[in-house]
Amino acid sequence: GAAASHLRTFSFAFDPGDPRTFWAGLVGGASLSLGSHGVDQLIVQRYLCARSLRDAQKALLWSGVVVLVQFAAFLAIGFLLWAFYREHVPARPFATGDDVFVDYLVHHLPVGVRGLVLGAVFAAAMSTLSGSLNSSAAALVNDVLLPLRGRTPADPRAFRWARIATVVFGVLQIVVGTSGLGGGSIVDQVITIASFTTGILLGLFLLALLRSPTPPAAAVTGLVAGAAITAGIHFLLPRLAGVTVAGLWMALIGPAATFGTGWLAARVLALRT
């Protein structure tokens, strides 16, 4: 493993297209974690279920420890699979790294254990998807639809709207999940997609923290500009300049672009008034 560089802990090379360098993990990873654990409704709604603010803070701090142990386990499993398939070379080379675990699960795990692992995979997927669908529908109905209609959460139509929104977001998740938006492995795709959404959202929250209130028009300008800049860097820059930017860096570029353009738009509007 050491000879194949599989035991190297840090890579200090500065390659914007490589999500596994020290700098991408430190800077981009910190920005992604700040967005996902600070402003994403999927996580925030779990804080609100805690008995007190202190309990929510404990949950946030311990989640960092648990995630560290979790990813260490992932890396260990990946290393063991690499060692296993060096001794049990498959008849056909794997098309992608994501196929390795699936092949091992289907062809090498004993009956019984295979069922337990499949059950765990489906249970984890269902719990994550249900939480994301609920948070997306809740944010749309409570933060957008009800205020626009001048209604309260007690309105009987709110529940019907939430059901419709859940179906719509379910369809959107299927489309995004099968689109291969992030490219590369599934992990890289997930990080890229999360960087798009949470990065822009983090930029909006930073605008809201300014001393002087940010006008809604300036916030919308920042939202649109942040989405356009991140999309342009991801889709157009590789074609025009041959430069690829990793998803973790998008987690920093998104909020910076959203906040920067929103702040400039607010200054321009202030000068006009």
Q: In brief, what are we looking at here?
A:
The chain is an all-alpha fold and 273 residues long.
Can you describe what's shown?
The chain is mostly helical. Helix content is 75%, strand content 0%. It contains 9 helices and no strands. It has helices at 22-38, 41-47, 53-87, 98-107, 113-149, 156-179, 186-208, 216-241, 247-272. Helix 7 (186-208) runs antiparallel to helix 8 and helix 8 (216-241) packs across helix 9 (247-272). It is globular, with a radius of gyration of 22 Å. It starts with 21 loop residues before the first helix and ends with a helix. The relative contact order is 0.11.
Helix content: over 70%
Based on secondary structure, the structural category is: mainly alpha
**Count of individual helical segments:** 9
Span of the ends, CA to CA: 64 Å
Quick check: average pLDDT? 89
Number of beta-strand segments: 0
- CA-atom Rg in angstroms: 22 Å
Helix and strand pattern: HHHHHHHHH
Global shape: globular
> Approximately what portion of the residues adopt beta-strand conformation?
under 5%
Largest sheet: none
